Amino acid sequence: MNTIYLDNNATTKTDEEVVKAMMPYLLDNYGNPSSIYKLGRENRKVVEESREKIAEILNCKPDEIYFTSGGSESDNTAIRGIAYSYKNKGNHIITSKIEHPAVLETCKQLEKEGFEVSYISVGENGIINLEELKNAIKPTSTLITIMFANNEIGTIQPIEEIGKIAKEHNIIFHTDSVQAIGSVEIDVEKLNIDSLSLSAHKFYGPKGIGVLYVKKGIKFNKFINGGHQEKNKRAGTENVAGIVGLSKAMELAYRDLEEHNKKIKELRDYYVSQVKEKIPYIKINGDMEKRLPGNSNISFRFIEGESLLLNLDLKGICASSGSACTSGSLDPSHVLLAIGLPHEIAHGSLRISIGKYNTKEEIDYVVESLVEIVGRLREMSPLWEKFIEEENK
Ligand SMILES: *Cc1c(COP(=O)(O)O)cnc(C)c1O
After folding, report:
1. Residue 376 alpha carbon to ligand 1 centre in Å
2. How many CB atoms lie within 10 A of CB 24?
3. What is the pLDDT of residues 312-331, one digit of tens each?
């Protein structure tokens, strides 16, 4: 049985072109970029060329790019590093209720360390309210950290406006752009972004390599002590092959952006319309316009997301659910609760995230499988039975 991979918001298949670009730096060109002989110098050169390529795509300067191990490290470094660097000015941070755990848990930790954090809510559509953001600002606010696009419901925040508000109040604006990079054009200058996180494995690059962009002039404490790599901000021998892979993946993503987005969005819209047509009692979560092209999040009433996933897995389909049972907790997703879903509906949700390798045939197979699985699981549900009896009265 073939695997049908529809969990591209969790990670993506590494592009073969990316792997090809990385191979020489694993096999032949394995020098340490800090060494002075030729084998080292060649590695230094490719690291700096990669940095330039990434800076050009983001419209920033190469020395504003710091390589990290991924999105989580970039978020931690930016938020902690900036919060502590500006502690003399104030101890207040503003974020949203739907952030990735890399941001939320960092903020919670900072609260324990004496910082004050405001968590902005989102509407039913999964978008923050700018008035609420403005009202949360205090004289002690030093940092706003709000994600570009959400990893569960795909909603895209009004980043340019948030950046503008931050600028007007002389507050630093960091955005977790891990989901947005590779799907959305990002010009940090135009969007007023001071600091940004990205991770290669979310756009067909390798795992374990990411970038933190921090605008020149903004201070942030370093996170890893040791050697002088990354302008003395992030010690450790550079992940040269990873860096090459990241910049290659980014180059490919933006070279083919329109073409891929068009194809992916068409497949996503087709999937959603098919589910709507063939399965009753569902709820589509998150704004359908201000949204990543490949993301869909649908709640199936009277169904447990976990059972749905297990049954899909038996058919070779990889997807994700809105409850966090797999991670050892029975709590429904904080994102789905934040958009106002009751627990039982949040529990029955399914995230299908489409990528550049998916086909219409795969979507047809998934819809067909869902019709069968949802039907079967509902037949077994006492709640469904009761609901149908009530309906037929
Ligand atoms: C995946 C993800 C992260 C974490 O990135 P890693 O590279 O896996 O550490 C952070 N934020 C968002 C929005 C993500 O989707």
Report:
1. 34
2. 15
3. 999 999 999 865 544 556 68
